[in-house]
């Protein structure tokens, strides 16, 4: 009978150990499931970051192109402004010469008229 008691005790201990192993196994399975979910979320986040990185690079490229275009427009505008300024200076000089010529002609004609009188 002691053998039966001993076997019964061993059986109970084994059942307890088996139960403990099952609980630990469930915990491990839950942790594994949680890790798989975390890994999935991390991959999604990594893809999101990668996408945002590409978008940022594209925006930087667009900004650089815009800055380049603005610089070119500024250079063209400056060049056009210089051309307009030079053209205006030429016109002023021509008008000054024309005025001088008219003044000289006027003075000459006045002298002639005064001399005839």
Keywords:
0% strand, 117 residues, mainly alpha
- Helical content band: over 70%
Overall structural class, as computed from helix and strand content, comes to mainly alpha
Percentage beta strand = under 5%
Strand segment tally: 0
**Gap between N and C termini, in Å?**
169 Å
Overall 3D form: rod-shaped
The chain-level mean pLDDT equals 93
Order of helices and strands: H
Rg over CA atoms, rounded to whole Å, is 50 Å
Number of helices: 1
Largest sheet entry: none
What this model shows, in words?
By secondary structure, the chain is mostly helical. It contains one helix and no strands. It has one helix at 2-116. The chain is rod-shaped and about 170 Å long.
Summarize the structure.
The chain is mainly α and 117 residues long.
What secondary-structure arrangement, pairings included, does this model have?
Blueprint: H1 2-116
């Amino acid at each position: 009978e002691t053998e039966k008691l001993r076997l019964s005790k061993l059986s109970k201990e084994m059942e307890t150990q088996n139960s403990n192993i099952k609980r630990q196994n469930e915990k491990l399975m839950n942790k594994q499931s949680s890790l798989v979910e975390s890994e999935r979320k991390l991959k999604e986040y990594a893809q999101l970051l990668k996408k945002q990185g590409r978008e940022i690079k594209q925006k930087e490229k667009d900004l650089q192109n815009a800055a380049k275009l603005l610089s070119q427009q500024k250079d063209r505008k400056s060049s056009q402004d210089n051309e307009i300024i030079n053209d205006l200076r030429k016109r002023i000089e021509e008008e000054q010469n024309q005025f001088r010529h008219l003044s000289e002609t006027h003075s000459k004609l006045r002298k002639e008229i005064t001399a005839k009188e």
